Request: fold
Amino acid sequence: MFWTTLIGILVVTASSGVALGAALGLTGLVILEFFGNGSTYLAIDVIWNVFNSFTLSAVPMFILLGEILLRSGVSERAYTAFTPVFAKVPGGLLHSNIAVCTLFGAVSGSSLSTAAAVGSVAYPEMLKRGYDKEAVVGSLAGGGTLGLLIPPSLSLLIFGALTETSIGRLFVAGVIPGLLVSALFMAYIFFLCLRRPQIAPRWKESTSVWAVLRGMVQIWPILLLILSIMGSIMFGLATPTEAAGVGVVVAIIISFAWGELTLAKLAAAVLRSVLLFTSIGFIVLGAAILSQSVSILGVPQSILEMAINSNLGTYGIFALIILIYVLFGCIFDGLSLMIMTLPIVFPLLTGLGFDPIWIGVIITVMIEIGQVTPPVGLNLTVLTGVTNNDVPLGRVAVATIPYWMLLLLSVAIMTIFPQIALFLPSIAF
Reply:
């Protein structure tokens, strides 16, 4: 009866066009009323605790940081700086896409912001140089996912806030996996362009060591921004929330002095950030109510007992969860999927003995996959818009398949070698 009610209300409310946050919240309230002896009053406590969270207040700050950088032209300067570095490497500017996405992801925290910022600069430039359109948008869609994994990450931040896991540890844990994914993407591009060199025409202009060094020197403002955020967290100078505030201040200064930020663009960034956080906050609110309802009924514990008593084994259950995330990633955006599933998935995986920090990294990679999985894959939609529909959504999706598979490969690698995610947190904290 419980599961029929839970799934039925979710399906009916979500399919009716009601916002996901409302669907989750209404489902939780119904469960509290009819299965929790009328304890709907608990929802008030949950809402207060969530939105009174000091940790969660970092979310709008990181959103604002990404919006400021998106509007300041900083991504264009970073792209120009990296261009000579990969000029003579098979794949050329395709590697620059990944490198700039990695760098931009380290300050934006958002997959969509990363894909949009780098894509708007890279696509027209690479088109002029004769690069294959599908190869370009594929690299941008894949590279854009790094915005969710490379710290500071909105995904890791919300995960930490909802599961009461150390944000600092989560941020540090995302560094090596993010670099691993970036390296896998670049390796794929390298070997692809060795086999099919027509995809990425060789750089015709001469490139000196001095040009490469000059380009690297030009990105010092971005490195300063990264240091101000991650350095303050790792050295214990600031909490993640405080670091977010510092990052916004530094981003504004850099964007005015080094970029093209104006007061009008800053106002637009603030407005966009408010709207985006309102949307995310509404989903978090609904998910918190649903989480409370299933928690007081002991649902996670029951699922854990069923999982332990099954014949699948620990890693069989884990593989099933991965499959569920892949399938659900087709119909939900990444952050919504994570928030919606955490009340069940997190207690289940921790109960099976998996490290909470490692779980946060793995789930982040899985929602990255959702960002490039049609029909809801938001990175695909963004890049279709960046190309002015020159590359249709279907072709963007096909071009992204190799990067989708490499993200799954990274999950397998981190499952076999969990220290990839856990090494840095163990020495930094």
About this structure: The chain has a mean pLDDT of 79. The two ends are 45 Å apart (CA to CA). Residues 1-40 form one domain. Residues 263-296 form the longest helix (34 residues).
